[in-house]
Amino acid sequence: MQPRKTLRADARAAVEACAGWNARLAARRITQFLDAAMAGSGLTAAQLGLMAQIVVAADDTLGALARRTGLEQSTLSRNLRTLEAEGLIEIAVVEDDLRRRAVWLTEAGARRLEAAIPLWRKAQARLARHVPPDLARNLAEAAETLAEG
Fold it and tell me: What is the pLDDT averaged over residues 101-124?
């Protein structure tokens, strides 16, 4: 005799098996952990990641940054405005194409990022004791195929 199906049982199965829900939960928990560990840097984990993406980019346009970070343009712009207001980045129109904007770190932004990286490294080492270091990267790479269509 099979157990009777119920909404509660179906919902529990969905919560336990849903890759989207579980990935978001893991991301929130990891972000909370990193934010707490980096509180003294003046940057959140998301800000550090965004600034690092700006530094390593060969293409410094906002469109390319949005694609690399997986952020919607409006979300990216909102996050960048905060960094710009703090004097950590500059955003300017690309001279040869007035429809495009480029972004880069200011000197103050580079100093803040450089000062935050040791805290980030220490937090990553602590995180690695709980979450395998390659797990998040492998998940991101696997999920990238979803963005490709």
Answer: 95
